[in-house]
Specification:
Keywords (chain A): Cell membrane, Membrane, Transmembrane, Transmembrane helix
Domain MrpA C-terminal/MbhD (chain A): 17-83
Largest sheet of chain A: none
Order of helices and strands of chain B: HHHHEHHHHHHHE
Transmembrane segments (chain A): 6-29, 36-53, 59-78
Helix content of chain A: over 70%
Strand content of chain B: under 5%
Subcellular location (chain A): Cell membrane
Radius of gyration of chain A: 19 Å
Protein name (chain A): DUF4040 domain-containing protein
Structural class of chain B: mainly alpha
Shape of chain A: elongated
Oligomer: heterodimer
Helix content of chain B: 55-70%
Structural class of chain A: mainly alpha
Strand order of the largest sheet of chain B: 1-2
Chain lengths: 95, 251
């Protein structure tokens, strides 16, 4: 009993560390597409943390929203904005 | 506001927050103790309502009114996103180019698409028994559908995504949650009170109102996320801004 307790504490510490590192990298990444990818990793790290903290319901939500939907929305937005600015540049070149 | 003033304001607020947060954290119970006053009460109430998943019992029975607010926020957010992303009068649709997909991607995509959808339905349907529920299952259903975009192309995704139906389903799901609360009022109990027959603990049909609201939330979240992603995808893939007009992106 005591042994398994120590293992779970150790797992929690590893997951907290993983969340801290990925969150810091996400905050320090200026480029939006890369940031979206780091956010997906942060989402996965949070999913692991919630799982080892025995909160599988929250972990599932985090997996769907944090690791999949949010990065996807960011990447689609970046793609749209980039396409618009490429068009703009082409037009200016034509003039 | 000058940069210095803003920084000074930030540091003042940060110091106050740090002190208050540290003081609050010292008053917390120790991490991993055996005493959980809220947890033991919630579990007792969940057992009483014959709902095996206590989280679902809290979300859709004990504190269903809170969840109604959260679902309304999601509905409003999707609605607002769609209003902003709608095709403006001067934007036009460009033809979507057929994408080239690696055979392995195509195979795994078409293999995983049905598995993911079944998983999503399972998670929605078993919300009262095991981890998950309408929200989680709905997100899995919505994202799983988009495997078609990865495994094939946008045309295929559009073909298997009945947007008009999902638009209506989003609203019906959100409305159904609010209407289901009236069942309680109809039999003389409180709004959103769990008055349906509770069934046998651990069975799919147990929990009374919980699986029904779960299903409504699953429909709302699943169709809402698909519709929202469709708004973003249309803008990213299909819709072209008018030529010769500055849309603010190319400054």
């Amino acid at each position: 009993m005591n042994g398994s307790y120590a293992t779970s504490e150790y797992l929690i510490a590893v997951c907290v560390l993983l969340v801290t590192v990925t969150a810091t990298v996400a905050a320090l990444t200026p480029e939006p597409v890369r940031q979206a990818l780091v956010l997906a990793m942060l989402g996965t790290a949070l999913t692991l943390l919630f799982t080892v903290l025995q909160a599988p319901d929250v972990a599932l939500s985090q997996l769907g929203v944090g690791a999949a939907v949010t990065p996807l929305l960011i990447m689609l937005t970046v793609r749209r904005v980039r396409r618009s600015s490429t068009q703009q540049r082409d037009r200016e070149r034509q003039r | 506001m000058s940069r210095r003033l803003r920084l000074a304001l930030f540091w003042a607020a940060a110091v106050v927050f740090a002190v208050a947060f540290t003081a609050a954290c010292t008053g917390l119970p120790d991490f991993g103790t055996l005493s959980h006053p809220y947890g033991s009460r919630a579990i007792a109430a969940a057992f009483h309502q014959r709902t095996a998943n206590t989280i679902s019992s809290v979300n859709f029975d004990q504190r269903a009114f809170d969840t109604l607010g959260e679902e309304s926020i999601l509905f409003a957010a999707v609605l607002g996103g769609l209003v902003l992303l709608r095709r403006a009068r001067d934007e036009r649709l460009a033809g979507v180019r057929r994408g080239r997909v690696l055979p392995s991607t195509r195979m795994f995509g078409s293999l995983l698409l049905p598995i993911t959808l079944v998983t999503g339905v399972y998670i929605v349907a078993h919300g009262q028994l095991s981890p998950g529920g309408g929200f989680q299952g709905g997100v899995i259903l919505a994202t799983g559908l988009h495997l078609a975009y990865i495994a094939a192309d946008y045309g295929v995704l559009k073909a298997i995504r009945p947007l008009a139906v999902l638009d209506a389903a989003d609203a019906v799901g959100a409305g159904a949650f609010a209407v289901l609360g009236l069942v309680g009022l109809a039999v003389g109990a409180a709004y959103l009170q769990n008055v349906l027959p509770l069934g046998t603990f651990g069975q799919l049909s147990s929990g009374g109102l919980v699986p029904v609201i779960n299903a409504a939330v699953g429909v709302e979240v699943g169709s809402g996320v698909v519709v929202l992603l469709a708004g973003f995808l249309d803008q990213a893939v299909e819709i072209v801004s008018p030529t010769g007009k500055d849309n603010g992106a190319g400054r």
